[in-house]
Amino acid sequence: MRIIIPRDRPPTWAERKAGVSRHWARPFIALEWVFDWAAYRLSQWKLLEVLEYLSSLSILVAAIFYFSEAGDRTKQKHYQAWQVINTAQGKGGSGGRLEALQELNADHVPLVGVDVVGAYLQGIRLKGSSLLRANFSDADVRMGDFRGADFSDANLRGANFRGSNFSGTVLRRAELDDADLVDADLAGADLAGASLANTDLRRTDLNGARWRDIANIKGANIGGMTHLPDGFRDWALQHGAVETPGDAP
Question: What is the rounded distance in angstroms from the CA atom of residue 82 to the CA atom of residue 63?
Fold first, then answer.
């Protein structure tokens, strides 16, 4: 929107004063008259019009540069997120990794091979993430959301996944030995080739999961599991699983 517009020539002071009937109002009218003339003179000054055009042009150029550099800003954001994750490797706590992982996943960045051993990531949301060959061993990932994620060939040994949602998750050949999956949701999960030795599966929901090709379930506790597919319980007990409902400690 243009600020400088052509203005009509204001009346003279004599003309303006003649229209004022109250003497007390003259100082205010005089001030307004001065401003009218100032605005009139400035509206005739072409330099200000040129400066206005230059200002508009600078805004346009800035907008062009902003959008043209959007890709670089995104790359920088991803680089910083990976730096947070890699710097905290082998350390306890979150160290900003929870937010960094969620940010990368929100931008559809594959998290293949990510190493978060022993990290505190309770409540993390990584729905639909690509976590092939990831290492979550001994991590605290209670109440995590991994719906539709791909954990193929991942190391999840000893991790605490209590109450986590793995519905529709791919866990092919994943190592879940000694993991805690109490109250987890494995509905529709693909467990082909997965190792569940000594895994705590109490009250886990197994509705519609692919289980027949599980590689190892020896010592796993299947007590209180819900929506068990036909044949799973007998098969699991025959292959060394135990059934001790009890409450989780």
Answer: 29
